[in-house]
Amino acid sequence: MRNGTVLNAVLVTPAGPRSRSGNRVTALRWAALLRRLGVHTRVVEQWRGEPCELLVAVHAVKSRDSVLACAQARPATKLVVLLAGTDIYPQFHPDAATLAALTRADAIVTLQPQATQVLPEPLRRKARTIVQSAVVAPRPRPTDRFAACVLAHLRPVKDPLLPFAALRHVPAEVPIHVTVAGRAMSPDLKAAADAAVAADPRAHWCGELSRRDALRLLASSHACLVPSTAEGGANVVSEAIAAGTPVIATDIPGNTGLLGTDWPALFAAGDTAALGAILLRCATDSAYYQELVRRTLALQHLVDPAREQAQWRALLDDLGLTG
C-alpha cells in the first residue's frame, strides 16, 4: 500500500497458464509474494493497457514489447525486468528493443549474483539479485539404488539427455537409476529419449509431470542433475536445496552463482565422462555424498521464502511504492 491506497501490479510472463516452465513458476510465486505484501497483482502474457502502478516483466526479450508499451502509455508506472538465462547467456547482446526496455526499467532483477556482472555499468547500477525461494517437503529415498533425476523439458539448452549418455561411464553393476521428467520439445528429442531408455535399463523418461509429482520425484531422489548449457538461476536448484537434495550441475554462472564456484559436484557442459565420474562417486563413496548433503543443507537459508519476500519489500520501498 502507498498512502492508504492499494497498489495495482501487472506481472507479464511469456509462459501461458498451462505452462509448467520456470518462467511461469517464477511469475506465480512472485505474484503470491506481492499479494502477501498487499499489492493487487494480475498475471498476464502481455500487457494490454491494464491500469497499474507496477509492471514486472519476466524475461527481458520476450516481454520487451509490454515494457515499452507500458512505458509510453503510463510513464509514471514503475517497471521491473527479470533477466532470464537466455537473456544473458551465452553472451549479453540485447537487440535494440530489448536494450531500450532495460534502459527504461526502473529496476532489473537477476536470479543469481553472477548475472549482474555481464551487464554494462549503467544497467548494473539498477540491478539486484533476488534468489528464488522454495518449500519442498523431504521424502524417503530408495535404499537399494542411487536415484538421480533431471527436471527439464527436452530442449537443447537444458541438455537433459546428457545423464543417459553419462551412464555409459558407470559400471553396469552399480545400482543407479536416472529419471528424466519433462516434455519432448521435438520429435528428434523424443526419439533420442526413447532410444536411450531402450539401450540402458538404468535410464528412465517419464514425460512431463505435474508440479506436485515433479517435486515429489525431486525430494525422493538422492541427487538432482542440472546439465544445462545456460541458466539464469534455475528454479529447480532452489527446489533441490529446499528439499535437501544435492545438485550435480554444469560449471556455468547460472549454477555456480547459486551453489558457489567451489561446489564439489560440478562438471563441464557436455562432458559425459565427468558427469559419469561424479555419479559413480556419489553412488559408491558415502563420505563424498554426505559432504554434498551437508553443503546443500548449509544453503537452505538462501531459499527461505521469508528472505525472498523481504527482498521484494525492499525493492518496493526503493521504488517509492510503499509508505
Describe this structure in words.
With 323 residues, the protein is α/β, with parallel strands linked by helices. It has 13 helices and 12 strands. It has a 6-stranded parallel beta sheet, with helices on both faces. A 6-stranded parallel beta sheet has the order 9-8-7-10-11-12, with helices on both faces. Strand 7, helix 6 and strand 8 form a beta-alpha-beta unit. Helix 2 crosses helix 4. It is elongated and about 65 Å long.
Descriptors for this entry?
Rossmann fold; 2 domains; 6-stranded parallel sheet
Rough outline: elongated
Instruction: Give the rounded overall mean pLDDT.
Output: 93
The rounded Rg comes to 20 Å
Q: What is the N-to-C order of secondary-structure elements (H for helix, E for strand)?
A: EHEEHEHHEHEEHEHEHEHEHEHHH
The portion of residues assigned to helices is 25-40%
How far the N terminus sits from the C terminus, by CA atoms, comes to: 7 Å
Portion in beta strands: 15-25%
Q: Let me know the largest β-sheet.
A: 6 strands, parallel
CATH topology-level fold name of the largest domain? Rossmann fold
The tally of structural domains comes to: 2
Given the structure, what is the number of helices? 13
Q: Can you tell me the CATH architecture of the largest domain? A: 3-Layer(aba) Sandwich
Number of strands: 12
Which stretches of 5+ consecutive residues score pLDDT under 50? none
Structural class: alpha/beta
**What is the name of the CATH superfamily of the largest domain?**
Glycogen Phosphorylase B
Q: Return the CATH class of the largest domain.
A: Alpha Beta
Strand order of the largest sheet: 2-1-3-4-5-6
